[in-house]
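Record type: monomer structure entry
Structure origin: computed from sequence
Chain ID: A
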Amino acid sequence: MIDADELASVLDEALVAKREIQPLTKTHGEFDLPTAYVVQARGIELRMKRGEKIVGYKMGLTSEAKRKQMSLGAPIYGVLTDAMQIRGEVRVAGGVHPKIEPEIAFVTAKPLHGRISRDEAHAALQSVAPALEILDSRFAGFKYFSLTDVVADNCSSWRFALGPVSRPKAVDGLRMRMSVDGRVVQETDSNAISGHPLDSLVQLVAMLPHPLPAGSIVLAGAATVAEPLRPGVEISLDVESLGSMKVRAT
């Protein structure tokens, strides 16, 4: 039988020690998706005991490109804490093998729960912003793990940064360009995120076992594949009508 507390502790120790481990399904046996979310929740409880606070959620595997990159199949979600948010700079050595990807972020103005429409999701927004998420799996090589492994590992959540915040506006069909040291490395349409970025918010609200609180930050998911992050580079993101942002890796 799978011990969710034990698996959460294994992942948390790897997080704190900044070290790789083998996928849990290889070392502890297979487990199902509901169990994976229990492990994720227990891991967040450990972080909260260290003083971290939940500030929102992230959607994962929302783009076809990202699902192909990771050889995984369905959208999933992870939890964001205040300790994960950075402002302008990220220390690469603080992680194991971080990667960065372009996203769109929402901040909610009121609670949401159950099955909602895209229009209801938009009406519930306080603001929207370009965002960069820095992923960092605890698993060796950042590859060859199962869907349940990645969910248990809080969907490879590590750090995130928000760009300029603006009032709610249309977020579909926006050109997104991510550059490294001024060279465009990824370019796509915002509809690469779940077909429409707001649909990620709709999906998240339907998946959560509890209401999404007002004031939550929601990362809609990657628009492209993730780029490896190395010290000394500057990553910039330009999103049509939403603005630009930069993060420097040290």
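Annotation 1: The mean pLDDT is 93.
Annotation 2: The chain has seven helices and twelve strands.
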